[in-house]
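Bug #77: duplicate submission created two jobs. Keeping one. Sequence:
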Amino acid sequence: MDQSANVNRIDQYHHLFRSLPAVTAWTLQRQQEHAADADEYDTALAAVSSLLRSEHIEGDGRFAALLRSRRIEKHVRRLREASREQARAAEQLRNAVSAHFALVAALPAQRAAKAEAKALRKGNPAPAGAQSKGLHKSGPTAQAVPPAPAGPPRTEPVRGIGDLWQRGA
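Kept job's structure:
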C-alpha cells in the first residue's frame, strides 16, 4: 500500500470519529459482522462435531472418536469466542466514544462554572470568624480574633501516655 492510500484511509477514520452517528453506525455494522461470524462458527462446530464424533475406525475404543473430534472442535470454539469478543469490543467502543462525545460537550460548561467559582473565591473575602490559613500569622486579622474562652478549672491532673506507662497498665 502506498503512502497516499494510507493517508486517505486515515482521513476516512478521522471523519468517522468526528461524528457520533457515523461511529455508531460503523460500530453496529462491525458488531453485526462479528455476530454473524460467531453464528457461522456455531454451524461449523455442529457440522464438525457430528461428522467427526460419528467417525468410527476399526480398533477404536469407546471415546476415541470423541477425543479426536475435540482436537478439531477446540479451534472452532476459539474462533467462535474470538468473534463474540470482537462483537463485545465493538459495543464497548461505541459506548466509550459516546461517553467521550458527552464529556467533550460538557467540558466548556464545566470549565466556565469552575472559573466562575474561582472568581467568586478570589473576589469575596472569607466571612468574619471563619478560619483561614493566615489566622496564625501576625497582622490585623490575627489580633482581631478573640482568644478562646477558658473553661472551668480542672480538678484532676492531665494524664498523658507517660502516666499509663508508669502505672504498668
